[in-house]
Amino acid sequence: MIIFRPALVRAAAVLTAGTLFLTGCGSSVTAPSEPGGQSAAAVTLVNCGREVVVDGIPEAAVGMHPAQTELMLRLGLADRLAGQAQATAQALPDDVAPLAKDVPVIGDVKPPSREDLLAVEPDFVYSPTTYEFTAEQGFASIEQLEQAGAAVYVAGGGCQERRMTGEVRDLFTDLEHLGRIFRVEKAAAELVSSSQAELDQVAAAVAGVDRLRVAQVYVDGTTLQAIGAGVEYDILRQAGADNVYAPDQPAFAEFFAATITPESLAAEQPEALVFAAYDEQHEAATRKYLTTTFPDLPAVRDGRLIAVSTSDMFPGTLGNVSVVRRIAEQLYPDAF
């Protein structure tokens, strides 16, 4: 068990440095949190199987993806951010972007290097997955960050042991934990409440529909992958889809994505295709591939090719909630 003391960490010297693809719902921004965190009692929680104790409110937090940065901004923590990572991977929503204008950007579309992350002297690092801490990629590992005095929190759905079974509602646990860590429980509860209300509205709308068979795919050039587990699977389930690919299938026994052949997808005859894209060019290229490769597929023939942002499919983001509605509205427009 490691106890993190933010004030002491920032005064001490930082240790010297020695893609997997896969935004927000209409939420408000909370007023900044009150100062005086160093006198606050320690917070103990379990995250990704690790016990983390945060002694005092973090003063130098880093969001390892814009989605995590957004969550902290919406909780009123702009003055406690020491860095925003992967900032060019996704634009912050217009209503919170101005709050981040003075927050240093570290890294571009990729996670920051070990040296760049340690240079901002973080005392709290919040990431969507454990990938951002892959030492072999040149990133700071969780152990290195802990040695430097930073508490590390990974979105619940992005924990290695949870990656295959993650759900949209894992975000609510993350928000509860953030509320405790930063002493903004009320703001966190309000975000949970508004997000749950949006999910409930979708559930009510799709309750009586004849569910369409939907396949979720990712296209990289001519490589075709099926998505059948994790939060991505739960997003489709909550949108009212009858998932073609599911966690109980052998292809997804060890990983939430699996490379498939065009013939195998064609054999499934999905009535809709959901695909993730990281920019407009990628979306256009994916649409072209799907329409030219599968002209007779019901999903293509009936015009049900639904593009979503890769960022909205990352575990532990507000986009997980809003994309449920967007997919449901395109699958069942008459229900809304």
TrEMBL record:
Classification via PROSITE patterns: FE_B12_PBP, PROKAR_LIPOPROTEIN
Pfam families the record matches: Peripla_BP_2
All residue ranges annotated as the Fe/B12 periplasmic-binding domain in the record: 60-335
UniProt KW keywords: Signal
Gene3D superfamilies documented for this protein: Nitrogenase molybdenum iron protein domain
PANTHER family, A to Z: IRON(III) DICITRATE-BINDING PROTEIN, VITAMIN B12-BINDING PROTEIN
Organism listed in the record: Microlunatus parietis
Phylogenetic classification of the source organism: Bacteria, Bacillati, Actinomycetota, Actinomycetes, Propionibacteriales
Signal peptide: 1-22
Superkingdom as given in the UniProt entry: Bacteria
Record family assignment: Belongs to the bacterial solute-binding protein 8 family.
Name the record gives this protein: Iron complex transport system substrate-binding protein
